Amino acid sequence: MSPRRKTQAPEPAAGAVEPGPATADFGYRKVSPREKTRLVGEVFSSVAASYDLMNDLMSLGIHRLWKRHFVAIANPRPGQRALDLAGGTGDISALVAERVGEQGLVVLSDINPAMLGRGRDRIIDRGLVGNVRPSLVDASAIPFADGSFDLVTIAFGLRNVTDKPRALNEMHRVLKPGGRVAILEFSQVESEGLRKLYDLYSFEVLPRLGRVVANDEASYRYLAESIRRHPDQATLAAMLADAGFERVDWHDLMNGVVAIHTGVRV
């Protein structure tokens, strides 16, 4: 039996940070970028303990199928290095870790310490510590060197990023030539009839569910608003192209309730 190669996280890289936007969306409010970062941090610190339960309740468990389909499309391969941004409680990292195997590496990252702590604990519980490394990371200032990863994933996290164009540029930078980005995010529902039902659920049912289960109605109202403020499918595809990605594509799930975008660094 050949000896197991020890996997190490990529080396951090320091670089100049360009100025970001003057304002940012926090749900339907316009706030300063710093204020959005603080407010989003408060939201996820509040919901961390009930995050997994609420995901199951909100989607009736369908989010688990979305995530498996997403990872299949991202197509991580044995021995690859992957960066899971906004990885939260570790669902995507765990699925990717199964595919990259012992010779690969997954960096489970999140900007929020409470969410990252939950993700780290769940990864340990699953026995995946050998090829998963937790790291506190801001997606708009990724602390790794150029060309560090074969794959970058971000699931249900991009809409909470303060400076999305900068984050997409960072994803492009840390990928190796030929590396792929894969984004799973709530998007624009195509059917007008379904959109009305979806709005009713998002703004009437979801906040009440958050109040009963998580004792936090406001955070789940923000999450519903953040989905509506997120760029639609075509706009996000154009943003990926602007960041330098090629072969950009997307496809919808459940009539656009969520969409999966992919792109390649050439």
Description:
With 266 residues, the chain is α/β, with parallel strands linked by helices. The protein has a single domain (33-264), classed as 3-Layer(aba) Sandwich (Rossmann fold), CATH 3.40.50.150. The protein is built from nine helices and nine strands. It has helices spanning 33-47, 51-59, 62-74, 91-100, 113-125, 164-174, 192-214, 217-229, 233-242, and strands at 24-26, 29-31, 81-85, 105-110, 132-136, 149-155, 175-186, 246-253, 258-264. It has a seven-stranded mixed beta sheet, sandwiched between helices. Strands 1-2 form a two-stranded antiparallel ribbon. Helix 2 (51-59) packs antiparallel against helix 7 and helix 7 runs antiparallel to helix 8. The N and C termini lie far apart (36 Å). The model is unreliable at 1-7 and 13-17 (pLDDT under 50).
What features would you highlight for this structure?
266 residues; alpha/beta; Rossmann fold; 7-stranded mixed sheet; two-stranded antiparallel sheet; 9 helices; 44% helix; 21% strand
Radius of gyration: 18 Å
Mean model confidence by pLDDT? 91
- What is the string of SSEs from the N terminus onward? EEHHHEHEHEEHEHHHEE
Domain module tally: 1
**Shape descriptor:** globular
- Give the CA-CA distance, first to last residue: 36 Å
Beta-strand content estimate = 15-25%
Q: Specify the structural class.
A: alpha/beta
Just name the CATH architecture. Answer: 3-Layer(aba) Sandwich
Q: How much helical structure, as a percent, in the residues? A: 40-55%
Which class in CATH terms?
Alpha Beta
CATH topology: Rossmann fold
SS element count, helices: 9
List the strand order in the largest sheet.
5-4-3-6-7-9-8
Record field, number of beta strands: 9
Largest sheet: 7 strands, mixed
Q: At the fourth CATH level, what is the homologous superfamily?
A: Vaccinia Virus protein VP39
Unreliable sequence segments: 1-7, 13-17
